[in-house]
Structure formats: structure tokens, C-alpha cells
Amino acid sequence: xxxxxxxxxxxxxxxxxxxxxxxxxxxxxxxxxxxxxxxxxxxxxxxxxxxxxxxxxxxxxxxxxxxxxxxxxxxxxxxxxxxxxxxxxxxxxxxxxxxxxxxxxxxxxxxxxxxxxxxxxxxxxxxxxxxxxxxxxxxxxxxxxxxxxxxxxxxxxxxxxxxxxxxxxxxxxxxxxxxxxxxxxxxxxxxxxxxxxxxxxxxxxxxxxxxxxxxxxxxxxxxxxxxxxxxxxxxxxxxxxxxxxxxxxxxxxxxxxxxxxxxxxxxxxxxxxxxxxxxxxxxxxxxxxxxxxxxxxxxxxxxxxxxxxxxxxxxxxxxxxxxxxxxxxxxxxxxxxxxxxxxxxxxxxxxxxxxxxxxxxxxxxxxxxxxxxxxxxxxxxxxxxxxxxxxxxxxxxxxxxxxxxxxxxxxxxxxxxxxxxxxxxxxxxxxxxxxxxxxxxxxxxxxxxxxxxxxxxxxxxxxxxxxxxxxxxxxxxxxxxxxxxxxxxxxxxxxxxxxxxxxxxxxxxxxx
Length: 512
Description:
Layout: H1 2-15, H2 22-65, H3 69-95, H4 97-100, H5 104-133, H6 138-147, H7 154-174, H8 179-283, H9 291-322, E1 330-333, H10 334-344, H11 346-349, E2 355-360, E3 366-369, H12 371-387, E4 394-402, E5 405-412, H13 446-456, E6 460-465, E7 471-478, H14 496-506
Parallel strand pairs: 2-4
Antiparallel strand pairs: 1-3, 4-5, 5-7, 6-7
Helix pairs in contact: 1-8, 2-3, 2-5, 3-5, 5-6, 5-7, 6-8, 7-8, 8-9, 9-13, 10-12, 12-13
């Protein structure tokens, strides 16, 4: 609202320079009267000094030029009167200041009356000068130039310049000094009055414009101050909220870190006991094998892996939030890395009747990456694909070379993801199916970690496809290498037992 108001004022200022907004009129009037009074005080003192000096000069010239007595007395009378008028003005503005106070009407009438009276007396003196010396009086020119500095409103300007002009014209007609001198005097005075009037009008318009522009600037400054105050309060409030969020996040991170370690200790004991029992059963032929015991041992192992996966994910997101999760870049053949990971899970899904297909458009592509983190990304995406792809479905892993990026795609023919969840699926703890009767298990952390790991590789990950048409998770890695390292082309040299254990943990949510 304030902005529109300012624009409106500016447009008015361009079209009608004298258009003053209503809310400014009183302040503008007060300011202009104060300017006029201060200027007229200075000019009054100067006028008294100059006028007395001219009167002394005239007295001297009277004796030398032997002027007639009667015209000289009138001439001197007007000079004395012209000196008395500023004295009265100074008396009224200074001595009666306490009584007058802030009476704008009185000040306005006073400065108009004084200025008009001074110009009238100067006009009469100019007439005597024309009659006696036969030339215009430079004193009158000075008075009119000074009068143009007074800030008159349009109607005040007509009054202040019009009355002296009429006084001069009428006086020229009354005093018969010759047609030629009368015409010259009228022409000179008309030109002088016109110039002074136009100059006064220009000065007034300039001051009005300057005043309005200053008011607009002041209002804008005040508005900015108010806005700054609101912003500061909002910033303070937001800072307090962020402090609360930071404290909460720290508390939450500490909680996850503590609970993860507390859970991991007993879980390690349970898992070790389960593995020891398996070892005893396997290596002691005297102990009879019971199928139910084997089934329970398998369930114990799988759920230990599920807990281990959840705890590891919680620990990892805590490290990522704290900035302690490191990625070690070396030059690897990304095609070989992805292919080995894909083939390594083939046996885990062979009983699900799901077809896994790997394809690439290039035989070799060396890029800077961390193969352990790439394995983590691929295992998560592949386990999700297996979870949500029914028996008889297909999973496709493809690698493409796209100029400055290497594109890796994991596509399935499963149930897909609703369109409204495409952007939120990578957020922490988000699940497509949140019901208690959901078929597939999961904590909603895996894809969040995938996004973080891809971001650490300076890449991006996104989801294509939609509900009912399958999902296609695509992540892109920068096509770059690091210096002074040798490309490793066979990722299968990594310890197979560690890789196998990671696969069992990642696929622990899938019941085969």
C-alpha cells in the first residue's frame, strides 16, 4: 500500500509539479513560511543598510545637482518609509515572537504584506528615478530579484507582483513625464515583473518538488526502519527457533548414537551365540539335526542381520549429520564395480522367480569413486527392487555414458511409487506403505543414505516411473578421475566374505 502511494506521488509530481498531497500541505506551508521569514529577516537588514546609504547618496547629489526641493522631499520620504517597513517587520517577528508563537496565518500575512509593500515603494522610487534621471533604477531590479527568492503560492505571487505592477503603471500615467519615457518605463517594468514572476514560479516549483521528494525519502526510510524492525524481530524469533531445532537435533543425534551403540553390544552377543551354535551343529556329528532347530536358527540369523542393518543405518546417518562420514576417492572401472555387485546378489534372488538383467553401453569407464559406497548404494536400490517386484517380474541394471556424467539405472517392474511421493521418497523415515499390515519391512532410512552417498560423490539421484508401472532409480556420477592413482579394473578382488556379509545384511528384510 505504501509503495503504491509513493508511485502515485511520483506520477503526480511529473504531471502537475504544484500538486501537493493533502497530508503534506500543513507541513509544507509551515516550512515555506519559516523559510520566507528567515530570508526576509536577512534581506530586511540588508535593505535598511542599502537604503540609508542611498539616502545619504541622494542628499549629497541634491546639493551637487541642485534638485528641486519638492520632488526631493517626496523622494527622500519614500526612502525613509522604505527603511521603516523592514524595521517594523523585524520588530513584529522578533519582539512579538513570543506572542505570535506558531500562528501561521499571521506569519503568512506578514511576509506577503511586507514583500508587497517593499516592492510598491521600490516601484514609486523607480518612477521618481525615471522622471529625474531618465533611466530605470538598478535598485528596483535588485528588489525584484530578491522578491523572486520568496516562496509564494500561485495566488500569493499574483498579489505580490501584481499590486506593485499596477501601482507603477497608474503612477506612470499620473506623472506626465513624456510619452517616450512612459513607454520605456512601462516596457522595462513589464519585462522586469515578468522575469521576477517566472523566476519566483520556478523556484517555488523546485522547492515543492524537493520537499515532496524528501518526504517520500523520509517515509521510505521510516518504512525501511519498520521493515527492519520486523525483520530483526522475525530473525530473533527464527534464531531462537533454530537454536531450539539445533538443540533438538543434537539431542536426537546423541540419542541415536547412544541407542545404536547400546543395541549393537547385545546384538553382537546374540549374533555371536547364533553363529557359535551353527558352528557346533555343523561340526559335531553326534548332535542330531532337527529341521525346526535349523529354521529357528535361520530366523535368528536373519533378524540379527535386520537389526544390524537398522543399527548401522542409524549410526551412518548420525555420522553424516555430524560430518564424520568420509568418502575415499580412487580411480575405478565403474562398469566392473556395478557389474560385480549386481552379479553377486543373483543367488539371493534366484528362488524368487525374478529375472535380473545387467547391460552397459560401454565396456570400461574409469571414474573417481569409493567402491564400498557404490556397493552400499547399489545393494540398497537392488534390495528395494526385489522387495517391491512380484514373482515373475524383471529387474534391469543399466549403465550409460552421458558426456560429463555416468548414469546408472536400477529399474524394476514392481508396484512403483505414487507420483506425489517422488520428491519425498529420499527423505528420512519416509515409507511408501506406512500401514502396520505392509508386506515389506523397512525403516525408511536407506534411500536417505543413498541420496547422501551420491551427493558425496558430487552426483544426483532421482526417481523415474510411477505407481503401477514400476520404479526406476537413477543416480549420476561425475565423469572425472583423480590424479596419481592407478585404475582398478577388477572389483571382485575385494574380500568376498565381507561383501557376502554386507549382502546378507542388506537383504535381511527380504524373506526368500
